[in-house]
Amino acid sequence: MQREQLAEFLRHRREAIRPAEVGFADGPRRRTTGLRREEVAMLAGMSVDYVVRLEQGRSSQPSPQLLGALARALRLSEDERDHLFHLAGHQPPPADRAASLARAGLIRMLDLLGDTPALVLSDLGQILAQNRAAVLLTGDHSGFSGDRRYTVYRWFTDPAARAVCPPEEQEYHARQLVADLRAATGRRSGDPTVTGLVDRLQAASADFRRLWAEHEVAVRRADRKTFVHPRVGRLLMNCETLLTPDQDQQLLVLTPADAETRERLELLRVLGIEEFPTGATDTPIR
After folding, report:
1. What is the pLDDT of residues 182-208, one digit of tens each?
2. Among residues 238, 239, 265, which one has the least CA distance to residue 252?
3. What Rg do the C-alpha atoms of the chain give, in angstroms?
4. For site-directed labelling of 189, which of 42, 133, 154, 228 has its Cα 20 to 30 A away?
5. Domain segments of the chain as ranges
6. Signal sequence: where (predicted)?
7. Strand pairing of 118-122 and 127-130?
8. Which residues in 37-73 are b (16+ Cβ under 10 Å) and which e?
9. 104-271 topology per CATH
């Protein structure tokens, strides 16, 4: 681990970001160039003290998970992210489809969308990044691990994941999730990450086995779905999916489908995230 160079690199990247680029006010009272340390800490989901120790070269070796969070918070490019990992004494994440870090360009698009809920997902449905509006709508999905990282796995193994979707839409969404996973297995033929996930789903869920046997295939691009939110009720959302050229990541943009939903989204923004439980609205968002 190259502590001094890591500290200098983090300071320079923090100072290079305009606050407005990541949703913070850029007012006349701001005395620091770029972001404040507490703002980086908030974006990365870590303590301010740890950010300070990193920038002063006094920290222990950060884990790959913390480095990934810092890369997202500082809007690093792929090359800058790899450099960050090298300075911290880790190998950069693989460049293949199993990589679990959102692309820098997609992160910047999240920032630009502002109050419009948007998420970056892998082709297996793992949520790699969310903007604040998406967290308000769907809950914070950053804490899932193992197979629970994947929306399709939670849907078929956790009854709570289905309970927030209207009963009349559950069969439709189940089929869509399975058809999208079937398309991913075709693109990633022989990939043990995908085949292992399918095998574990078949072992865990008779409902998944039933739908998987029907061999339906469909890549999710545009859709409309109902979110049942614990604080503001039903929200009917249009869902537009933008795929990267190799289809390994996608940007999902959610917009209100009617005036009532638009009003409820505005109420949700006013309510903010106080007492909003993590993952509370685990609606199938693919």
Report:
1. 988 888 888 888 999 999 999 999 999
2. 239
3. 20
4. 154
5. 3-87, 104-271
6. none
7. antiparallel
8. bebbbbbbebeeebbebbbeeebeebeeebbbbbbbb
9. Beta-Lactamase (3.30.450)
Q: Among 166, 155, 158, 133, which residue's Cα sits nearest to residue 284?
A: 155
Residue 81: phi, psi to the nearest 5?
-60, -45
HEC profile for the chain? CCHHHHHHHHHHHHHHCCHHHHCCCCCCCCCCCCCCHHHHHHHHCCCHHHHHHHHCCCCCCCCHHHHHHHHHHCCCCHHHHHHHHHHCCCCCCCCCCCCCCCCHHHHHHHHHHCCCCEEEEECCCEEEEECHHHHHHHCCCCCCCHHHHEHHHHHHHCHHHHHCCCHHHHHHHHHHHHHHHHHHHHHCCCCHHHHHHHHHHHHHCHHHHHHHCCCCCCCCCEEEEEEEECCCEEEEEEEEEEECCCCCEEEEEEEECCHHHHHHHHHHHHHCCCCCCCCCCCCCCC
d(C-alpha 201, C-alpha 151), whole Å: 12
Paired residues of 240 in beta bridges = 222, 253
d(CA 7, CA 58): 9
Question: Token digits for 250?
Answer: 């996608």
Query: Do 3-87 and 104-271 show the same overall fold?
Result: no
Instruction: Return the structure tokens found at 281.
Output: 């609205």
- Report which residue type is found at 125: G
150, β-bridge pairs? 126
Mean pLDDT of the chain: 84
Please answer whether residues 144 and 157 qualify as being in contact, where contact means their C-beta atoms are separated by less than 8 angstroms.
no
Contact (CB, 8 A) for 194 and 180 = no
Q: Does domain 3-87 have CATH number 3.40.50.460?
A: no
